[in-house]
Each structure stands twice: as structure tokens, then as C-alpha cells.
Amino acid sequence: MTASAKELAVVPGDVVLDQTVPARAPWSSVVKKGHVLTIVDLRGNQSVDTLVYHAHDTSVRYSAPVTIASQRQLFLTTGSVLRAEDASALMTIVADEVGNHDTIGGACSQESNTLRYGHHTKHQHACVENFLIEGAKWGLGKRDLVPNINFYMNVPVEEDGTLGIVDGLSAPGKRIALIAETDVLVLVSNCPQMNNPCNGFDPTPVRMIVTEPYSRSMRL
């Protein structure tokens, strides 16, 4: 039996939204201030590429450099604050069952697939295309795309600065939860990549649950 949204939501509250994002598909929603977004890795080892914008002014958006500098840490986990270029807080991770999420691996595209894996992959749908398709619903275009977060993606950094994309640390049912510090637009590409281990070479669905906590001041 499939667990209910209330059972899966990390922060107890009233369920505002409960949607399953198919493998390789985009998703978006406005998450209101104080509401909590729980992302569930249903089958494990699935990368969830994510962008965050201020819902009422999309020029205010997630900044990887500012977020990394503010926390003095490349990777995201419980307590990490997703910050905009002006250092304002957009979302805070309040719970994390994996403990390591990527900020520097970027989003796959048809062009990068061709460069990395060969011309025969050019036709494959990719995260940049997902972001453009979904962002268009909110008036966003290519110039609005910035370096994204890759929830559940494992990108170790070697001593010489080399990046790797290796098997994920997640498992079926693992969750991460973020509270919105202001009204935010969350844009997701449920990564379609099949040419490296970020999705175990087999993209799978994820579940997005938004709850309104019973207590607005609740923090885990």
C-alpha cells in the first residue's frame, strides 16, 4: 500500500499538494512562506535538479556562489539555507535523510550530452530542456536559468579539484524537506540522464509533497 502524504511529509501539517513527478519529467509549483516541501526519492538514486525563485520577483533567485560562500560548504544538508544573490533566504533544509546534495554539477543539456557521451545522444531529452519547458509557464526563459541544485546527486570533489558523478547515496523512500522563508517558485527537472550513474542509468519517479505545518515556528 502506498504511504499517504501525511505519513511521508517530514513536518506534520495539512497537505496542500501531493504530486508524483514521472521519470524524466519537469515540475513546478509556488510554495508559500512557512510551507514545507518534502521531496521523496521513491525508488532511490534519482537526481532531482532544482531551481528556486522569489514567487513575486523572479529576478531574485537561488545563487549557488552565495549559498556556498555563506555556509562555507559545497554540499547541502540539514540547516543549509538556499540564498539569493542579495543573500536573502529563499528556503532552508529542515530535514535530510541522505546528508549530501550537490551544488556544482549543473544540469545536463542536449549539447553537453553530445560533448560528453557522443553525437548519438543529442536527441535525448535533458534537464535544460525540462527547465525551459516548465519555466515558460511562469514567463521564464533561457536567460533566467542559473546553476542549479542537484538533490540526491553525488558529486565528490577530489583533492586535485576533479569532479566525479558517481552512484547516489540515496535509497527508496529517502526524503529531504525544505521550508519556504518567503513565497517561492520551485522549478524541477526530474533528471532524464541515462549516460552516467546519477540516476543509476534508469530515471525513476519522485514525489513532491507540500504541507502547511501545524505550527509556523516548527523546526526539526
From TrEMBL:
<dbReference type="Pfam" id="PF09347">
    <property type="entry name" value="DUF1989"/>
</dbReference>
<dbReference type="InterPro" id="IPR018959">
    <property type="entry name" value="DUF1989"/>
</dbReference>
<protein>
    <submittedName>
        <fullName>Urea carboxylase-associated protein 1</fullName>
    </submittedName>
</protein>
<feature type="domain" description="DUF1989">
    <location>
        <begin position="19"/>
        <end position="185"/>
    </location>
</feature>
<dbReference type="InterPro" id="IPR017791">
    <property type="entry name" value="UAAP2"/>
</dbReference>
